[in-house]
Amino acid sequence: MVLVRFHSRRLALALLLLITLCGVLHLISINSLQDVRDRILLRALVEENVYNSRSLSSDRHNPQHIACQHPDLDVKNPEIFRFFRQLDPIKCAEEPDWVVVSGSTATITKQAKEQHGGDIECEFTELLREDDDTNKRGITTATHDSFVFANSDFYWVSCTAKDGKKWENIMAGIRRDDDLLLDVGWDKVPEESLQMNFLMLGFDSLSHNTFIRTLPKSYKFLTEVLDANVLNGYNIVGDGTPQALIPILTGKTELELPEARRRMGEKAQFVNTYPFIWDDFKKNGYITLWAEDHPHIGTFNYRLKGFKEVPTQHYMRPFFVSAYPEYSNHPKLCLRDTPRHKVFFDYVKNFMDVYKKDPKFGFAFHTELSHDDYNLVSVADDDFLSLLKSLRDNEHLNNTILMIMSDHGH
């Protein structure tokens, strides 16, 4: 009698678990279908609102008929300004880097050689992308002087000095790949185009007024020296970085593009299916760059599926995917003697220098300093100013449309 009751309980429990599992799977299926339906309904609602708004187009210059009016906010409002402060500069390693990168060339410094016995051997190992979240190591080349980046923009560097001391780092430069240049050149750019370079530099979560408060030297240089046109705001079509950048880069909202959300599982496509503007530039003779510095919350990787193939000829995500696990081995916000934001800025500078005579499109979007702290980005003011001055002094701005922007602000 006891044995029968025991088996009956086990059978009932197994049956209950099976029913529960079926119920959960059914709910997942329903939610997935509902998510697709909600996406279609939301797109229809947006299109209806856009269509209805056309009735105002005849009087669109009347401020009363502008739905999203930008507020006129005082940059120095004491109620807000008291929350801002200039932070101390980032303190990196006391020992200067043994190797420095300029353009496509890494050089062992004279100072390092003098301090460590007169001779240093450095091994450069290629950092090669496998996919958006994984890299592998390639060929290793040794040198006692300099090394030219050829097969990759990124290298693991390991040096041993004559006195036995060692130095290691992960470094970024711009490889000068002749194969990339086969389809690049002003002769391939349509004659009816503007015949100009285009460079976009962005800061995540940095509002117009916060930029002025935290990067005052850069703002002064932009407005007073470069005589930049200041746009007081723009209307984004959704909440978050993708909703701000996707329409700028594709001319479409996310709802109008192929499904790429990670949570949609097998239905999600890689974002290579998006009609990115850099693809148009590539087809028309331009060398291209897309760079971000925070791989875990990347614009196209945090919520979306990311890229299957590299989106541009120069793509910085692999560098930070490999560098991120190493951060604990370096001073805070640094890679050895160099602040990480400067490594990022230098990647842009090197891109412009290496391809000085070639048509180029670049978009570099900085996140680490500005995403979570509206004061921390102030430590980058001097280095960002140096980047802007370098662009001017090297005459890159003579034939370049430069756009400084953010996705949204706080």
Task: Please describe what this structure looks like.
With 410 residues, this protein is of the alpha/beta class. It folds into three domains: 63 residues; 240 residues, Alkaline Phosphatase, subunit A (3-Layer(aba) Sandwich); 74 residues, no CATH class. The protein is built from ten helices and 14 strands. The strands form four sheets. A five-stranded parallel sheet has the order 10-9-13-8-14, with helices on both faces. Strands 4-3-6-7 form a four-stranded antiparallel sheet. Strands 1-2-5 form a three-stranded antiparallel sheet. A hairpin with a 2-residue loop joins strand 1 and strand 2. The termini are far apart. The relative contact order is 0.15. The model has no long low-confidence stretch (mean pLDDT 90).
CATH fold-level assignment of the largest domain: Alkaline Phosphatase, subunit A
Pattern of helices and strands: HHEEHEEEEEEHHHHEEHEEHEHE
- The dominant shape is globular
CATH class of the largest domain: Alpha Beta
Biggest β-sheet: count, sense, barrel?
5 strands, parallel
Please give the number of β-strands: 14
Residue share in β-strands: 15-25%
Number of domains: 3
Strands ordered across the widest β-sheet: 10-9-13-8-14
Number of helices: 10
The structure class reads alpha/beta
Known CATH architecture of the largest domain: 3-Layer(aba) Sandwich
Pfam family, one: DUF229
InterPro entries: Alkaline_phosphatase_core_sf (IPR017850), DUF229 (IPR004245)
